[in-house]
Amino acid sequence: MKIYTKTGDKGKTSLIGGTRVWKNDARLEAYGTIDELNAFIGVLITSKLPADVQEFLIGIQHQLFTIGSFLATDRSKTEIKSASVIHEADVQALEQEIDRLNESLPPIRKFILPGGSHAGSVAHVCRAITRRAERKILHLVQTGFEIDTLLLQYVNRLSDYLFVLSRYLTVSEGDKEIFWES
């Protein structure tokens, strides 16, 4: 399979289904940011992580790929297997993992700056990209693209998970969190 097709050389690309759109289309902004997040989670996974965290992150990568595919599909030309690509159980899994990791952390008394440890810092980058993805998806919704509210809940909860994970990785590596001094 050839990697380059030259069909995008003039600034347009195809959605799943064949519809041609500009590369700065709101859909591409949304699923491109999801793709960027997925790539950075891949960077995070290459850090020395506990096996259970690594496994959970790989599961998130699969979910993100599914979300990206959903956002990249022209539903007027392509049938999607399910109206909802995210399920309540997916959101609950994030919440359970947030609670599990948070149990071992000291209470938050001040704002925490990104840093502390390498893996924790990468998790903060992932969190920030997740927030941007959320904004891009909301913009897409405002243009009339229909999205199940569970997808929005999942992305919102994912940023919470990545925040708690950043703290967990920093503390578990024996490093100190960096607190904002006003």
Question: What does this entry look like structurally?
Answer:
The protein is mainly α. It has one domain (23-74, 84-179): Up-down Bundle (Hypothetical Protein Ta1238, Chain: A). The protein contains five helices and four strands. It has a two-stranded antiparallel ribbon. A hairpin with a 5-residue loop joins strand 1 (12-14) and strand 2. Helix 3 runs parallel beside helix 5 (149-172) and helix 4 packs antiparallel against helix 5 (149-172). The N and C termini lie far apart (55 Å).
In total, the number of strands is 4
Largest sheet: 2 strands, antiparallel
Per DSSP, the total helix count is: 5
Specify the CATH class.
Mainly Alpha
Strand content: 5-15%
Query: Into how many domains do the coordinates divide?
Result: 1
N-C termini distance: 55 Å
Mean residue pLDDT: 92
Global geometry:
elongated
- As an assembly, this protein is single chain
Short description:
Helix content is 58%, strand content 5%. With 182 residues, it is mainly α.
Would you spell out the secondary-structure blueprint of this structure?
Layout: E1 12-14, E2 20-22, H1 26-45, H2 51-71, H3 88-102, E3 112-113, H4 118-142, H5 149-172, E4 178-179
Helix pairs in contact: 1-2, 1-4, 3-5, 4-5
